[in-house]
């Protein structure tokens, strides 16, 4: 049996060294899989013929770089350790490694390959924390196959990994543990000699509660289980009460890694007019200690991006909530954020304003602009207005036929109102306005 250790600062370990994991190590470390049959919940990645399996078996056509993407505690580091069999294993944590560390590892890998014929697997944990320069430093080594790169991230690689590295890598998505996989992990931990060695039991209710509060995070399951086992030594059985005492409080599924997922779900729930789901995600952010100013800013953006002219009061409510939270603070500010959340979630929706400004900016950025029509220019300058400017207030409807857009954009309509909420009235008025303006064309 080949055993592994791992070093968060960077380590040099070949899988053939047979370094034993201390019996005093945390339960999660002692139960790291020794082979693929012990990997739970990722069957879609480790079956015969998959790229990960080909890399593990050293078969031709294996990718030179793999990015393991998934939530915490699903086995990204364990898979990297298994992939290191037959290779020299090095690890860096993107939390505290810099470009200098990356280059040193690459030069060391170059030496090992040239003088000893040993291939290096470089594992980078939390690679999304690397900036562009740090990720760029990896490219030559991946391109020249000096290293086999395995990187782990909890954030969407499309947003956190630079395109050149992403194009040279195979992205594999790991799933949170299902209830079935979580139950298997608990049973293994209770019985395995490297685990609790059949010295303690867990009653069914406590097992269900442990699975629930762990939210598919295998590391969390084992951490909670070990704590509960320590608190249950006298009785020999882990109960719901013992589990509650050991854990003290279920940790909200929200940290820096879930930050973007939760705020995304919050926005999308309001956009979908599901007020109850929106309040749930708001509560998760509040209980996790999210900055209330951040939540308030997202509400203000949402009010214009997704509600817009369908209910312009949404922007006023969101802005007032942001100002009120700044004055009142937390925890009372939670009520103000909830007020604005309910208003925005139940308001009629329109993204017409968002589309309008996006299309206008696209035209400007592509050079489709043209000259300002002469009557609209500043008449106070020597080369200002030339032509007659018709003052709209002098006309019965307050609108007069005239050219306002530059020549290349005559007839262009960016703002296309919906018939939702108050925007229906705007749509009707705009139809008449455009009819009058069109009289100049």
Indicate the topology.
Layout lengths: L11 E3 L12 H4 L12 H4 L4 H6 L8 E5 L6 H8 L4 E6 L5 H18 L3 E6 L6 H5 L2 H5 L3 E7 L3 H4 L2 H5 L2 E4 L5 H13 L9 E2 L1 H11 L3 H14 L5 E2 L1 H8 L11 H13 L3 H13 L4 H16 L5 H16 L4 H14 L5 H14 L57 H15 L4
What is the compact description of this entry?
This protein has helices spanning 27-30, 43-46, 51-56, 76-83, 99-116, 132-136, 139-143, 157-160, 163-167, 179-191, 204-214, 218-231, 240-247, 259-271, 275-287, 292-307, 313-328, 333-346, 352-365, 423-437; strands at 12-14, 65-69, 88-93, 120-125, 147-153, 170-173, 201-202, 237-238.
Explain this structure:
By secondary structure, this protein is α/β, with parallel strands linked by helices. It folds into four domains: 12-173, 3-Layer(aba) Sandwich (Rossmann fold), CATH 3.40.50.300; 179-247, Helicase, Ruva Protein, domain 3 (Orthogonal Bundle), CATH 1.10.8; 259-346, Zinc Finger, Delta Prime, domain 3; 352-440, Orthogonal Bundle (post-AAA+ oligomerization domain-like), CATH 1.10.3710.10. It is 47% helix and 8% strand. The protein has 20 helices and eight strands. It has helices at residues 27-30, 43-46, 51-56, 76-83, 99-116, 132-136, 139-143, 157-160, 163-167, 179-191, 204-214, 218-231, 240-247, 259-271, 275-287, 292-307, 313-328, 333-346, 352-365, 423-437; strands at residues 12-14, 65-69, 88-93, 120-125, 147-153, 170-173, 201-202, 237-238. It has a six-stranded mixed beta sheet. Helix 5 (99-116) links the parallel strand 3 and strand 4. Helix 10 (179-191) packs across helix 12 (218-231) and helix 14 (259-271) runs antiparallel to helix 15 (275-287). It starts with 11 loop residues before the first strand and ends with a helix.
């Amino acid at each position: 049996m080949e055993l592994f250790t791992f070093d968060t600062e960077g380590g040099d370990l070949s899988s053939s060294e047979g370094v034993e994991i201390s019996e005093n190590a945390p339960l999660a470390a002692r139960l790291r899989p020794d082979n693929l049959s012990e990997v739970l919940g990722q069957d879609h990645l480790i079956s015969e013929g998959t790229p990960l399996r080909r890399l593990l078996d050293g078969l031709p056509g294996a990718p030179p770089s793999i990015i393991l993407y998934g939530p915490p505690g699903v086995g990204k580091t364990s898979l990297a350790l298994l992939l290191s069999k037959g290779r020299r294993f090095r690890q860096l944590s993107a939390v505290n490694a810099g470009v200098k560390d990356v280059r040193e590892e690459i030069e060391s890998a170059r030496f090992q390959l040239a003088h000893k014929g040993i291939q290096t697997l470089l594992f980078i944990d939390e690679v999304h924390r690397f900036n562009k320069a740090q990720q760029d430093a990896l490219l030559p080594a991946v391109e020249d196959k000096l290293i086999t790169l395995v990187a782990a991230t909890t954030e969407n690689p499309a947003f956190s990994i630079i395109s050149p590295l992403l194009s040279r890598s195979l992205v594999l998505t790991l799933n949170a543990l299902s209830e079935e996989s979580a139950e298997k992990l608990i049973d293994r931990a209770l019985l395995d000699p490297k685990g609790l060695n059949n010295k303690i039991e867990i009653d069914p209710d406590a097992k269900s509660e442990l699975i629930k509060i762990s939210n598919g995070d295998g590391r969390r399951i084992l951490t909670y289980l070990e704590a509960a086992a320590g608190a249950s030594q006298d009785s020999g059985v882990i109960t719901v009460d013992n589990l509650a005492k050991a854990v003290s409080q279920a940790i909200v599924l929200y940290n820096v890694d879930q930050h973007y997922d939760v705020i995304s779900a919050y926005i999308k729930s309001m956009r979908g007019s599901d007020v109850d789901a929106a309040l749930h995600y708001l509560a998760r952010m509040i209980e996790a200690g999210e900055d209330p100013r951040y939540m308030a800013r997202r509400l203000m953006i949402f009010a214009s991006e997704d509600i817009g002219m369908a209910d312009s009061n949404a922007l006023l409510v969101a802005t007032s909530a942001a100002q009120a939270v700044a004055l009142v603070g937390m925890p009372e500010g939670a009520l103000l954020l909830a007020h604005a959340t309910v208003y925005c979630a139940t308001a009629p929706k329109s993204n017409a304003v968002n589309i309008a400004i996006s299309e206008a900016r696209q035209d400007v950025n592509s050079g489709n602009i043209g000259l300002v029509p002469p009557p609209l220019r500043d008449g106070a300058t020597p080369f200002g207005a030339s032509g007659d400017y018709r003052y709209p207030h002098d006309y019965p409807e307050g609108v007069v036929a005239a050219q306002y857009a530059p020549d290349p954009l005559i007839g262009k309509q960016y703002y296309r109102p919906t018939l939702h909420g108050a925007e229906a009235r705007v749509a009707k008025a705009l139809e008449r306005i455009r009819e009058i303006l069109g009289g100049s064309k």
